[in-house]
Amino acid sequence: MRIPQTPPKLNDLITEVQNADRMGEIFALMQKEQTQRHYLHWDKLRRYSPPSGISHREWWMAVKLSRGGKPIGLEDKTGRVFQFSVPELVMEELHQIDLGSGGLVSVPEPITNPQTRDRYLISSLMEEAITSSQLEGAVTTREVAKEMIRAGRKPRDTSEQMILNNFVTMQRIRALKSSPLSPELVFQVHRLMTENTLDDPTAAGRFRRADEKRVVGDDFGTVFHDPPTAEELPARLDAMCAFANAQTPDFFIHPAVRAILLHFWLAYDHPFVDGNGRTARALFYWAMLHSGYWLFEFISISKILRKAPIKYGRSFLYTETDDNDLTYFLIAQTQVIRRAVRELHEYIARRTSEMREVESHMRSLDLFNHRQVEVIRHALKHPGQRYTIASHQKSHNVAYQTARTDLLDLGARGVLEHRKKGKPIVFIAPADLSEKLEKEARA
Question: Residues in the chain with pLDDT < 50?
Answer without folding.
Answer: none
